[in-house]
Amino acid sequence: MQGKIAFEEHMAIEETLGGSRHFAGESGRWDEFTRELLDVGERRIEAMERCGVDFALLSLNAPAVQGILDTDEAIAVARKANDKIAEAAAKFPHRYAGLAALPMQDPDAASAELTRCVNDLGFKGAMVNGFTQKGEPDSAIYYDIPEYRSFWATVSELDVPFYLHPRMQIPAQAGNYEGHGWLMAAPWGFAVETSIHALRLCGSGLFDDYPNLRIAVGHLGENIPFALWRLDARMRFSPRGYRGKRPLGEYFVEHFHITTSGFFNDPAFKCTVEVMGTDRMYFSADYPFERMEDAARWYDATPTIADSDRLKIGRTNAIRLFGLDLE
User: Considering the domain boundaries, does residue 132 fall inside one?
Assistant: First the structure.
């Protein structure tokens, strides 16, 4: 399919590049990752053209700003990264737009940077890499807590999507992975971390306070769609601390939007579509951590999508979600 739109497509600046080194593992691909993350020009656009990807929303790599302990440094790095994305979008306006990196160490600073990015730079939303560390390496701040309600008020007022992207758990809170470090990152730990954070948002009353919030998650929903029936079934018996006014599943289906990033599998896709519906599903690749060619080859050929839905999930849903001015 030609004309696809993707929006879990990462870039880096020198200050954040090292945070992605572990993704290369022992594959010997670090030099290639470096070139691909730093490039927001012709090399990336050529890959998009080969794969039928017409437009991409660029976002900063992980954990990037969320792993910076000093708040002032986090603010400066976020601003620098966003300016870099804005430069790319200005140079290639028919190929790129931006999702803002945010210094979540300070909710007010995050609100100010998101406002600058949307109102001054034309960004279409934000991508934040999971929980934030602040001050101490062992800290992990999640955004369902009351201190972040002012930030969510800004997101609601700007009416832009917020992409919740994975990151690895910090060692101090990862005892259950001891001796099995392979579990901590993309194979399993990413989905665990992101799904817990997403469910915390659902259970915090956030969507009662701000009913227009739209949250995107990748990897076919980080295992939540598969488990959603059981979550609601068991919540009837153990709702301790749950602050939502409605069943959790209703919040997830109404407020979350799911991409195919990094999860190119027919049975999993079919399950996710059956739970979420085609209006809340989107194509994405997760470049460069996944091969854009693999994402496009699977998506273009999978028999689980009707032709009419392939265009919707691959393109028109994203135009609607982000308010893109594309033909």
Answer: yes
Residue (of 325, 324, 247, 288) closest to 47 by Cα position:
288
Domain span at 8: 4-322
User: pLDDT digits over 162-221, tens only?
Assistant: 999 999 999 888 999 999 988 998 999 999 999 999 999 999 999 999 999 999 999 999
Q: Is 286 a catalytic residue?
A: yes
Contact 324, 54 (CB under 8 A): no
Q: What is the pTM of this model?
A: 0.96
Cα R_g (the chain), whole angstroms: 19
Instruction: For residue 33, give the CATH number of its domain.
Output: 3.20.20.140
Total tally of structural domains belonging to the chain:
1
Half-sphere exposure of 282 (CA within 13 A, CB side): 30
Q: Is residue 252 part of a domain?
A: yes
Kindly report the CA angle at 36 between 6 and 96, in degrees rounded to 5?
A: 35
327 part of a folded domain: no
Given 144, 286, 294, 307, which residue is catalytic?
286
* pLDDT tens digits along 132-156: 999 999 999 999 999 999 999 999 9
The C-alpha atoms of residue 277 and residue 233 are separated, in whole angstroms, by 20
67 in Cβ contact with 135 (< 8 Å): no
